[in-house]
Amino acid sequence: MGLRGSWQERSGISRAQLISVRLLPGAVIQLVGSYTTSGAPRFTRFSSGRFYLLVVGVELLLVATTVLVPQWTSDPPAAGYVAIAEAQFAPVVPATRAFAWSCGHNQEGHRNTANIVVAPGVPGPPHHVHEYIGNLSTDVDSTEDSLAAATTSCPNGDLSTYYWPVLRTGARAGDSRHGEIAGPVAVTVTVFGNPVAPVVAMPPLLRGTVGDANTATMPQGQATRAWTCSGAPERRTDRYPLCRRGDRLMRVFDFPSCWDGRRVDSPNHRAHLVFPAASGVCPAATFAVPRLRLAVEYPRPDGDRFAIDSFPPQRNAPQTDHAFFVNLMPERLMSRVVRCLNTGAECA
C-alpha cells in the first residue's frame, strides 16, 4: 500500500537520462521517476505514488515525465450537469447475496489532503480534500501499526479506511472555484458475493481504487463510479445529476473484486484488483473477493452550484470522482462476511 512500513517500495529506476525541460506556466507534470531542481535535493518517489507539480515558469530537470496541458480553454458548466430523468438506466447485474453496515457519515469531521494509497507520506494539495469513514487515524503519517491501533467509526469494529473527495456547494463543474464543504448525511458500506463462484477473504491491507482523479484530461478505461438520486437509483450518470425536490444526491462507488491472489497493491494501484466481466466471471488467474460498494448521500443541492474537489486541470469535472479503501477488517468480521456471501449464513 505504500504506507510507511516494512512493505514500502521505492522506485526501481536506477539509471535514467536527465533532460532539461522549460515549460509554460500552467502546464502540469506527472513525475514517474526521480527528479532534481537546481540547488534542491534529489527526490525519489515511491513506486506506489505519484507527484504532480504546477509549473510557474521555471526550468526543471526531470526523469521520465509526462507533460499534461489542461484541455479546457473555457468553462463548460452545462456539460457537467444532467436532469436525473435524462440519465441512462443502470445496467442489470446478476443477483448475489449482500452484507451491509454503516460506519456513520463522518460526524467526526475526519478530512485531510492525504492519500495513503497513491502518495503515502506526502501531503496532498490543499484544493483536493478527502472525506473518511472507518479508521479514525488515517492521515499523511499513517503506518500499518498506527492504523491497526486506531479506533473506528464502524460499530462492527471494521478498522478499514474508506475515502473520497469532498463535495462542495458554491462550486461548479468547469471552474476552479471552491465552495463550502457539504458533508454527507448517510454512507452505506455494502459487500456483494459473486454470481458464478464463491468469494475468498480479502487479505489484510488490500487496497482498492475506483475512478480516476485525472479522467477529465487523461481518459481511463473501466471506472464504475456513478452519480444518481435517491428517488431514481435505477438511473446512473457520470455527470452531476439535478435531483428532484425531496431526493438526496448520491455517489455510488463500485470497486473491482477480482484479486490476483498475491499482492495487496500494485504500481498503478489497479492491476492487483480488477473488475469482473458483466457476467461476474473473473479473469484467469484471479479470485473473486467480496465486491465493495460505497453509497454516499447528501441533501439535494440548490440548482447546479455543487462539485467535488479536483486537481486544477480537471476543473471540478464529475467524471473525476474516485474513491479508495484499505482493508483492515478483523479476521472474525471478514470470515462472517465470506460465510454470508457464500452460504447465506450470519448475514443479519
TrEMBL record:
InterPro entries: DUF1996. Keywords: Membrane, Transmembrane, Transmembrane helix. The chain crosses the membrane at residues 51-72. Residues 117-299 form the DUF1996 domain. This is DUF1996 domain-containing protein. It comes from Phytohabitans houttuyneae.
